[in-house]
Amino acid sequence: MQTNFTPEQLTDPHVAESEGILRKCVHCGFCTATCPTYVTLGNELDSPRGRIYLIKDMLENGRPADEEVVTHIDRCLSCLACMTTCPSGVNYMHLVDHARVHIEQTYKRPLKDRLVRNVLAAVLPYPSRFRLALRAARLGRPFAAVMKRVPFLKTFGVMLDLAPKDIAPTSPASVPGVRAAQAEKRGRVAILTGCAQPVLKPGINEATIRLLTRLGVEVAVPQGEGCCGALVHHMGREEQALSAARHNVDVWTKAADEGGLDAIIITASGCGTTIKDYGHMLRLDPAYAEKAARVSALAKDVTEYLATLDLPRQEPKEIIVAYHSACSMQHGQKITMAPKVLLRNAGFTVRDPAEGHLCCGSAGTYNILQPDISATLKARKVKNIEATKADIIATGNIGCITQIATGTAMPILHTVELLDWAYGGEKPAGILPSP
Ligand code: SF4
Ligand code: SF4
Q: Cα(353)–Cα(395) distance, rounded to whole angstroms?
């Protein structure tokens, strides 16, 4: 694609990077076929190609974002299916990240949007605040249906609907410290305990630590880990995202220098995609560029790391698993086979739902900020999953677990919970059929 940035504009490294990305796009439109919002809405401006044109026009003209650009960029899930499809290697992720920062810096959103976004950014990345908010949501839950009928309150009603009925106590897995290997030691890792996940489903990190230590891997929960910054990053809040990234880079650099690390284990693929991008996010910060690149290189999804441990094959089980590959897993991190191979080796029968490339509509805070498109995508995803006639669903991202669970009666687990059970751990609570 031809671009027309001035030499002065190109002195801004963010603009220069986006120009390079734009120039790679050859307008072929292959990406439109796999874009969930184009497939759902049928509007070219809600396709990757359409958004690329909107971003190009806005950046080239040095214009503040307007309502049209904001509408179509806000509808983008950042699922990155377009990057998997694109034959020209267009890095849509970094382009839309830049566009979101530009929107945040130049566009004044309506009061309700600002309020909702401020609440999300102030609550979700902090487990103690999130836990308090979920407790408060219990009181508000009876009013959710009414609130969803009032335009100004609709988003708050959606949030109440998504809040779980039961809130688990703080997990011991979140307490900083070192968990010793329970067999001959063959590795040492740090685990990101995360922000929303340990509040919503603490069993995921507990299963990960049990499984890894049983396999001879020492697991450190470093003091001071925080949210990876993905939630605010996708809202265009660059300073908040970079500050979260710098904080974690410091924590993990210290852990790696003090005890050595083979990997930083991440159990939410949405976080993994962002942490693997820290090296890029902090590339212009001389104090952090090198350290951030080191952290990104160490970041591994738990299934990616388990695949290196050569786990023994287990006896077949009478359990069929529908594997839902989170967008951040398959498109963001390009991890497609490892989770399924691990599950099959562990004795499960694995089925792939149709249209596996399409997002379930969770996408961080998307199911709160764009509830209608999200609900359509959820219904489509659930229909495809239920058609597999599997006994349970497995996936590797807490956002997908929360989203899909609100649309089906099928039990849904994190992949690592099934693997922990298959390799000598506890049977996940009350949701599996008898083997
Ligand atoms: S990230 Fe997903 S929703 Fe956004 S343009 Fe690409 S395919 Fe479409
Ligand atoms: S597939 Fe790639 S090159 Fe083709 S229009 Fe989409 S982004 Fe551009």
A: 12
How far is the C-alpha of 186 from the C-alpha of 180, rounded, in Å? 11
Between the CA of 76 and the centroid of ligand 2 the distance, in Å, is: 15
Domains 172-306 and 313-422 fall in the same CATH topology: yes
**How many residues comprise the chain?**
435
**pLDDT tens digit sequence for 399-425:** 999 999 999 999 999 999 999 999 999
Best residue for ligand 1 mutational test, from 76, 93, 362 (most atoms within 8 Å of Cβ): 76
- Identify the helix (H) or strand (E) that includes residue 220: strand 217-221
What are 55's two structure tokens?
């971003």
**Ligand 2 binding pocket includes 80 (Cβ within 6 Å):** no
134-144 pLDDT, tens digit per residue, is 888 888 878 88
Give 85-132 pLDDT, tens digit per residue: 999 999 999 999 999 999 999 999 999 999 999 999 999 999 999 999
1.10.10.10, 1.10.510.10, 3.30.56.10, 3.40.50.11810: which CATH number matches 313-422? 3.40.50.11810
